[in-house]
Amino acid sequence: MLTIFMFILSIIVSKKIKYRNYKLGVKELLKRDKTSLFLTIGTKVGVGSIIGTTVCVIVGGFASVFWIMVFSLMMSSICYYESYLGKKYRKKNSNNFIGGPYFILKYGLNKKILSLISCVLLIIIYCFFFQMIQLNTISNIIILNTNINRNIILISVFLILLITIGLSIDSVLKLMNKVVPIMCFIFVIMCLYSIVNNIDILILSFKYNLNNIFSIKSILSGMVIGIKRSIFMNEILVGTTSVSSAADKNDSDICMRYQVLGIYFISFVITILVSSLLLIYLHDNNILNDYILLINSVFYMTSGKIGVYLLTVTFTLFGFTTILSGYYIGKNYIEYLTGSRLLFNIFKVLFIIVCLLGIIVNNSIIWKYLDYLLFIMIIINSYSIIKLIGSENK
Length: 394
Prior knowledge:
By secondary structure, this protein is mostly helical. The chain contains 16 helices and two strands. 82% of the residues lie in helices and 2% in strands. It has a two-stranded antiparallel ribbon. Helix 4 (47-60) runs antiparallel to helix 11 (216-234) and helix 10 (199-213) crosses helix 13 (252-282). The longest helix has 47 residues, at 291-337. The radius of gyration is 20 Å and the shape is globular.
């Protein structure tokens, strides 16, 4: 039902904004402030985007990867407009700006109660549940590839969190600007190296799977899972897009293009790289039901021990940027909306606790509740889009 709704909404929004030009030149990209670009990549590119592609292949086959890219292309219009609203209704907070679903609902639609609900949901979903999922996956990867036990990981993460919660908003944004490009560069180079070294196998595997990928049965089975994972991977209407765009110091048009660029990077670059490696691995191996073990086996097969060590490092960096962005969102909102030192201290304690619980608690328990919360959040933010679409012309 949600899939059909999002499909229709993407068509409506695309028609309303008349398929605007999302292109961003390289020279323009290098000259502009890239805070929001790195913030959006930091919030969206993480363990979920890598594991998400892997889960798609396990559940829906390689046809689901095709649907991730197609649906992401369609939903870029929603991202574009969501970014516009985040920029339009943002407010000044010290030396920075703050925005997101709360501000869109309150100042765009005058829905005070709904805005508070969206604020609470955003903090629960992104600042808490997303952190738990990321850290659970990272800890499992570290344990799988090293001799480090879970207790040492718990202590290490606790120390990192203590340092993180002492950072100012400016410091978090500056750190994101440094860490995000590094982690993306490492991951892309690592994948390209593995693909080039196994290009013959990739070509053979693609030819072998071509009929299965584009068969009617494969397309239909992969459509639902591919679209669902696309929504989650790109965090469409979850709220992080409008939060990221609000922090942007560029003009609105550049800001919105940055957000779309973030989606394209996730849906095309990350997805194509990971699915290519899966094609190489599955040419001579069976699909493993454990997605963490599968992605680990893929990098071991294509790059050896160096591959799994780099995968571990990359996952750790992805997790760190998600921690930074999650803390940034919670801190920014609480400081602006309440100014209460007590509430902020409570948030810091809860943030540390849920992150540590993520290392211990099973992911299936987290997903059980997260799916429902994501559904509610998407519906609320869809309401904002539908009500405000075309408001820029009034």
